Fold this protein.
Amino acid sequence: MAPLGYARALLCCGALVLLASSRPASTESLANAQFLPAPAMDLPGYLAPAADASLGTTFVRVTTPESPMGNGMVCKRSYCTHRYSSAQAWNADQSLLLIVNGCNGLCFLDGHAYAPLFRRQRGGECEWHPQDPELMICVAGRRISLWAPRSNAEDVILETEAYRELQFGPYKGNPSWDGNRIVVRAISQQGTLVAFAMDLSDRRKFPDIELARIPGKNSYCGISPLGKYIFCQQSLIDFTDQAFVFSIEGDLLQSWTEHHRPGHGDMTVDNDGYEVYVGISKSAPDKYQVIKRRLQDGQVTALAPYGEAQHASMRAIRRPGWVFMSYAGAALAPAGGKKVAPFAQEVIALKIDGSGEFRRIAHTRNAPYDYWSETHGSPSPDGSQVIWSSNWGQRGGPVFDFVSRIDWADRDSGNDLAQGDRHEGQQAQ
């Protein structure tokens, strides 16, 4: 047990349990890192503190598909998880944690103790406001609104007859870091699929982007962290996924026509002040590597070598210098002198400056099976907690959610947090 100063009280089933915080995460370098196998471990009990002895991290199972969680929350027996890696699971002050997949509604847990608090029924898609912990930004039907889950109060920002089937993304939509701008996909009065940016603070709609004018079928569109760019992914008939970057006014700036270069990722601002997309490349010359790519000019920087990286998350918006990577599969052996990433069934935090510095967060023990069993690691806004999913080695077995804690008490944290505050203070132009 850690000293009491590093312990957190976890209220479970009427009992007060002390959950030791993880020791400060140790930084490693990809240049000399080795694969670290997960030690054998039984599935932890629901809300029972657990430790990964090989990593020195603590974690908690926060969902229980096998039985009701309490306060009216019941999950499917097959899975009970947060929404996605690039969706923010915690609200701005981390007082609430949202479970969506498999739960009977929007299920809100205590953001630190993980006890079930309340649930809501709501259509459409809602994402947390990045600055106001009481609000979510919701898009559904013909409406965009700000919604307060605790009180169920709603402030309608836009109610339109000019568009229908409004969607937030869909599924990969996030607001800008200041919470003012989003991108909406919709059907126009002419019956065409369009995307447009919306400024929520001054209730201003930006020009339409006619998605039929770019190749392929649209998968989603999203706003960049500083609200300057619109990023759209298109899928071609041969399953090639391309990306297109537009200005906020709808002018085409970049066409990334290679397949998924990158994809399965998220957007942030890097150490040099550029807005970037970080994800996994599926095209030469960096196939199956983790890369970042500037929205402004398309410049690519390789971050991690060939490996089984599956999803990237930049939801730790107050620690923007790190990407949280979910790795699947089994450990890969070097072939032909090729450097490989030494990770399998693991969640790590990786610096996006190209230095190769990383920190191990969790052994997921997640046996590949289907979409719902993918790990989808997603950090809290300050990066102190990471939620991830696992079937605990049972292919086709129930998929649970777990939260790992990270202690960032080191020389790097102040610089990263200061950088995040600086970028968040910028006005989107």
About this structure: The longest strand covers residues 181-188.
